[in-house]
Amino acid sequence: MKVLKVSGIETFYGKIQALKGVSLEVEQGKIVTILGANGAGKTTTMKTIAGLIKPKTGTIEFLGENVTGLRPDQLVKKGISLVPEGRAILSGMTVMENLDMGAYQRKDKEVEKDLEDVLKRFPILKERKNQLGGTLSGGQQQMLAIARALLARPKLLLLDEPSMGLAPLIVAEIFKIIKEIKDAGTTVLVVEQNAKQALKIADYGYVLETGKVIIHGKAKDLLEDPRIVEAYLGRKSEK
Amino acid sequence: MLLEQLINGITLGSIYAIVALGFTLVFGVLGIINMAHGEIFMFGAFVGVMVTSTLGWPIWMAFLAAIIVTAILGYMLERFALRPLRGKKGVSHLAPLISTIGVSILLENLSHHLFGAGNHPFKNAFAEIHFTIGSITIYVVQIVIFVISVVLMMALSYWLSKTRAGKALRATAENLDTASILGVNTRQIITLTVVMASAMGGIAGILVGMAFNSVNPQMGLSMGLKGLAIIILGGMGNVKGAMAGGLILGLAETLIVAYGDSGYRDAIAFLAIIVILLIRPQGLFGQKTSEGRP
Q1: Of the candidates A9, A133, A141, B14, which lies 20 to 30 Å from B260 by C-alpha distance?
Q2: β-strand A57-62 against B136-139: which pairing, if any?
Q3: Where are the transmembrane segments (chain B) (predicted)?
Q4: Residue among A80, A153, A105 nearest B188 (CA)
Q5: B288: pLDDT confidence band, cut at 50, 70 and 90?
């Protein structure tokens, strides 16, 4: 079953066209990754899916329902949560308050239990739960951002460059977490610069270039695709 | 004598703090200065005059009526003067400021028309009741004003730090986009903020009426400017800063009048603010680097 179906979206910043007809699909229970260089339109794609930017044309379907043009908070209600680029921690609020905000729309009785589970899964957050979000390190902030998004119990989790600016050990930890999220049944769409790591955990991949999808296919095929190897997995990824 | 002046200063300062809180909440969430806040405050004061003098109802009815009227004014301000300008391409960031200035002039003209120029007496049953401790005279009305202000500030602080809506307001103030992807309907929160801030202005209007026994259509402007000065002093968008700044300005004004030249009352208060800002440009409680919207 398709969780997400994006068809020919075109998004503009003023007169500048950032997306020139992007189409992609995300199957239930999979990890799908979007790769591409800086300025290819990866973040714009994520922001458009999450409702932060409205596409000029094209449609976005979520679980078979047309959700194009809905506000971000309405999409959270439907089951889409975004962990944006740069993590977007509420730096003036405590770690606990950040987590509370993750469950903002939920009124069910399991919020408390989910909070406990999250603190158990991320002991570092439990340790710092009364600290302001802005005082955490980059890796801790990323974990907080992911934990916060999970507390909304999304059906589709959007992760925008979760490994950006983090030390290699932390990056490995983040990818491990993404895998666990998938194994727990949440579908994941992840944008990454770190193509090799992303393709290793992903089931399917799309490559964006100047606002268009230029290549897509199964992740294990992309790992061997000479065009990808040359452009994204070559010497660059060894650094 | 000094103690008496301190009590006067704290009374005045607590009213200033309530006015400034209205400014700071709106600034925090919308990033704009609401120049109509002073006039909404003035309308609250006039509602108090109508209810207590014209209708002869008790003072608590005046509070209720002022809260309702100013909340409605706040809603209309947000709905018709601010929302249409928000998120539109090509709208100058100064446009909402000009828009609120327009509303402030409209409200002032309207109050001239409705209530007439000049001072209106503000009746209140316990205006003259006072007691003396040693050589100090304390009016009951001062205690009432102080208690109401403190309760209001405590309630607001509790609401902001503990409730779901309060946290959503803080999240929206920190970053609109982040709040929205967490599921906050930011448009609702913005409306709520402007309505709440305006109602606080209305309450402050009644408090000023009680404190000075006099209300006029021009009082909005000077109170508006003071409120603005206070939030700059306390740190823009900072709740604690608005409270502390209000008390500082109230005390400074009262002490200047008591021990200096009352003719320079307003000027010296503003000079004091300039001096403080030279030493601490970000305001008393402000952060060094302002966190702008990305």
Answers
A1: B14
A2: unpaired
A3: 6-33, 63-82, 94-116, 136-160, 189-212, 267-285
A4: A105
A5: low
| Residues of chain A positioned with their CB less than 8 A from the CB of B174 | 90-93
Chain A nearest-CA residue for B182: A102
Q: Quick check: helix, strand or coil at residue A86?
A: coil
Tokens representing B236 are 């823009």
Task: Check if the beta carbon of residue A189 is closer than 8 Å to that of residue A156.
Answer: yes
Q: How many CB atoms neighbour CB A137 within 10 A?
A: 13
Domains and CATH numbers, chain A: 2-238 (3.40.50.300)
Identify residue B66 by its one-letter amino acid code.
A
B247 vs B230: CA distance, rounded Å = 9
Six token digits for residue B21:
């809180």
Chosen for mutation from A44, A101, A105 (greatest number of chain B CBs closer than 10 Å) is A101
Dig out the tokens for B160 from the structure: 């902001």
* Residues in chain B within 8 Å Cβ distance of A102: 182
Report the CATH architecture of B2-279.
Orthogonal Bundle (1.10)
**Nearest-by-Cβ selection for B174 from A51, A90, A152:** A90
Written as one letter, the residue type at B154 is: M
Q: Is the pLDDT of residue A236 over 90?
A: no
Q: How far apart are the first and last CA of chain B?
A: 52
Strand partners, A212: A209
Six-digit token string for B72 = 């409605």
Q: Given an 8 Å threshold on Cβ–Cβ distance, is B183 in contact with A105?
A: yes
Q: Average of pLDDT values for B128-153?
A: 89
Interface of B with A in 255-294 (CB under 8 A): 291, 294
Structure tokens at A166: 């983090």
CA–CA distance, B266 with B258 (Å, rounded to integer): 13
Q: Are strands A2-13 and A16-27 parallel, antiparallel or unpaired?
A: antiparallel
> Whole-number mean pLDDT of chain A?
92
